[in-house]
Amino acid sequence: MYTATFIFAAGQYDEEFYQLDEQIAEVARSIPGYLGEESWENKETGRVSNVYYWENLAALQSLIKHPKHIEAKAKQEKWLSGYQVVIAEVQRVYGDGAFVHPADSFVNP
Length: 109
Fold this sequence. Notes:
Blueprint: E1 2-10, H1 15-30, E2 34-42, E3 47-54, H2 57-64, H3 67-79, E4 80-89
Antiparallel strand pairs: 1-3, 1-4, 2-3
């Protein structure tokens, strides 16, 4: 399993941002191997973190190569005050099972 964490400093959003953001979300959810996502906001820094969970690297790369994702990346300076992406391979998942999580389908090697 892989995660792609998109961390960004919020800027000024417009209608185009919201439309493109929703289109990318729809594309991600339609890709075989997409497992789910979560979002977090740090009120102190103003940064937002979106974590996408993927069954495999090929599924993640399908989103990265999609024209809508490429379009958003090219226009990010219009809406964001900086960003960073962290791609990680998950080695282990554990917990008490008290809530459903996208990583629940990961089978530890």
